[in-house]
Amino acid sequence: MDSYLISIAGNIAAGKSTLTKALEKRSNGKIVSFLERVDYVKQHGYLQQYYKAVNAYDQLKGEKLDGKDPGGFLKVKEEAEYWGYKIQETYFLSRLLDLGVLNELLREGQSVAQDRSIYEDQIFTKNSNNYEYITDEDYRRYQDLFKLVMNNKPTPDLIIYLESDVATLKARVVERSRGEESELASPENAYLANLNILYRPWIMRCGYPYLIIDTEAVDFRSDDGLEQVVQGIIQAVPGTGRLFE
Which long-range contacts does 65-74 make (Cβ < 8 Å, 24+ apart)? Predict the structure, then answer.
């Protein structure tokens, strides 16, 4: 029996975990939910350090130096570059380990709904390079590593992209109250907006079947909204129909 890998993609607070678990329930366990396992990042405070470093650098970017403390500016910039690469490297390695587990599940004939795939790392890394949190040299190194390591790895049968506007994402960040994310919801913070700019071109060029869900129009927490998503999955990948019978 064929197994399917459905990857749920989207910006921070788009609802990926919610949909992942809802698909498992709707399929009566024919699909298992696979949530991000990035405890190492949170336990060691990497996210807090990352957001702190890049926010500090963003605040200095627009200020006039006037010859004042160039060493201090460079120190802040180097801190942002260190954490910019460190966070992406750590996430990539964590998700690479997840791929090994996913591969075993798929080989055993188990279909999986995955909360954010390793392929989305490319969006976050590109964003960090665009805004000077990752140097050009480190970005090229990351791309080379990605191409080398990802050869012959399991690929999604379908990517569901949860599209949300920035105001909605910020409201959800506030609602779920995760301390390390609090700065993302501030009016002047453009991090979520910058990621949103990269997501749609990425999904359209990803090379895999995809389904775009407008999370403001489709509430998959409701039965009707979830059924819309299910029908979209079946239409995009007809063999998945048996998973929802």
Answer: none
Q: Which residue has the tokens 């605040």?
A: 59
Distance from C-alpha of 190 to C-alpha of 127, rounded to nearest angstrom: 11
Q: Cα–Cα distance between 214 and 161 in angstroms, integer? A: 9
**Residue 238 and residue 211: Cα distance in Å, rounded?**
13
pTM, to two decimals: 0.90
Q: Please report, for the domain that includes residue 226, its CATH number.
A: 3.40.50.300
Q: What range defines the domain where residue 107 resides?
A: 5-36+100-244
Count of domains observed in the chain: 1
Element (H, E) at 161: strand 158-163
Q: Per-residue pLDDT for the chain (245 aa), expressed as one digit of tens each? A: 589 999 999 999 999 999 999 999 999 999 999 987 666 677 777 888 888 899 889 888 867 666 666 788 889 999 999 999 999 988 888 888 888 889 999 999 999 999 998 999 999 999 999 999 999 999 999 999 999 998 888 899 999 999 999 999 999 988 887 766 778 888 888 899 999 999 999 999 999 999 999 999 999 999 999 999 999 999 999 999 999 99
Kindly state whether residue 81 falls inside one of the protein's structural domains: no
